[in-house]
Design goal:
The chain has 362 residues and is an alpha/beta fold. The chain has 2 domains: 235 residues, Spore Coat Polysaccharide Biosynthesis Protein SpsA, Chain A, CATH 3.90.550.10; 75 residues, no CATH class. Helices cover 34% and strands 16% of the residues. The chain has 9 helices and 12 strands. α2 links the parallel β3 and β4.
Length: 362
């Protein structure tokens, strides 16, 4: 494994020589060439392009999907129903290693809505996002989840906000409103609702200047990037982000921190809003415990990859004490909501230790 602070694995074309994680302004990581899409692989992992997206003036909306044509259909329909039309935006669907049946449905849906399609044969959300970034030719790229629905004026909102952002701005996020497929259970801790990818805040601001609460920053269901800036920090790290059943996260936080350390600004604006489906199957103690475990794994990996090794080790020691003290909680049935807040803290601590081991001992 390369030393901490070296070029993190993203799946984007690697520079010929080793490049620091945060390259100085006069030596940026080379941007991905704006080559036309073709059946040839674009990035490692077997990416194939089935269509050439148009080259609109402003933004490519990238929707990554895996085995979920039903949700994708709703997502694409919402993108097609923009009140001001889709001028200035095009849609690119990235199929992340779906099975043959689902892939056929995804291809049909994509064609029916006039979108472009990329196929990535290797699963992984970060790899899929980077494939979309490599294919995009617009100055801005936007990512929304396949189970998200944009507001009817979302494209207009993105265009309006981007037009007034300063030249230092490289990322933008907005509200993610929950659409509950079942009622949120009363035992669910309020502070853990964001684990469902829910973001509520009604005022604009810039990350880090005190205008926003600490929990408000762009989430993966609704985020927009200046494409050149995202490429310059290497895209999304493959060590983080969902892969199959592993609920790894943190890749978005890594990108936001990388952009800010490179001198860019990250903004939030309520004019750019989406609705996010909250699946009933996630509203269980077992899912929440699993989510918190992988959140701990992700936070440890993120801290070490960002060069915060000593801070991670100190936190790891605290987490070890927490695990020792909370061990009796493991006797509670996984399906039970009894002491769920304490058990979630224990699951996070266990995950943090796992993440440290994965990163330091590999």
């Amino acid at each position: 494994m390369e030393a901490i602070g070296s070029f993190i694995q993203t799946g984007l074309p690697r520079p010929a020589a080793a490049v620091p994680l945060f390259a100085p302004a006069d030596r940026p990581v080379p941007a991905v060439p704006a080559a036309a899409l073709s059946p040839a692989p674009l990035v490692p992992g077997g990416v194939r392009a089935d269509a050439q997206p148009a080259a609109p003036a402003l933004v490519t909306v990238i929707v990554c999907t895996h085995e979920r044509p039903g949700y994708l259909a709703t997502c694409l329909a919402a993108l097609a129903r923009q009140s001001g039309g889709n001028d200035g935006a095009c849609v690119l669907v990235v199929d992340s290693a779906s099975s043959a049946g689902a892939a056929a449905e995804i291809a049909a849906l994509t064609a029916a809505h006039g979108a472009a399609l990329l196929r990535v044969d290797t699963p992984g959300l970060s790899l899929a996002r980077n494939a979309g970034l490599a294919a995009a030719t617009t100055p801005w790229v936007a990512y929304i989840d396949d189970d998200a629905r944009v507001a009817s004026d979302w494209v207009q909102g993105v265009a309006a906000v981007v037009a007034r952002l300063p030249s230092t701005a490289a990322a933008l996020g907005g509200p993610i409103v929950p659409a509950w497929e079942a009622a949120c259970p009363p035992w669910w801790p309020e502070e853990l609702v964001p684990a469902l990818t829910v973001l509520r805040w009604d005022r604009p601001g810039r990350i880090g200047d005190g205008s926003l609460p600490p929990h408000v920053e762009p989430y993966g269901a609704n985020m927009v990037f200046r494409a050149s800036a995202l490429r310059a920090v290497g895209g999304f790290p493959l060590q983080l982000g969902r892969v199959g059943a592993k609920l790894l996260s943190g890749e978005e936080a890594w990108v936001m921190r990388a952009l800010r350390r490179a001198g860019h600004d990250v903004h939030y604006d309520p004019a750019v809003s989406v609705t996010h489906s909250i699946q009933a199957g996630r509203l269980t103690p077992g899912w929440l415990l699993t989510r918190q475990f992988w959140s701990g794994v992700s936070e440890a990996i993120l801290a070490i990859r960002m060069g915060q090794r000593h801070a991670a080790l100190r936190k790891g020691a605290t987490m070890a004490v927490h695990v020792a003290a909370g061990a009796p909680l493991m006797l509670i049935r996984r399906a039970s909501a009894v002491m769920i807040r304490e058990r979630c803290a224990l699951a996070f601590a266990l995950g943090y230790l796992r993440g440290m081991a994965m990163t330091l001992w590999t």
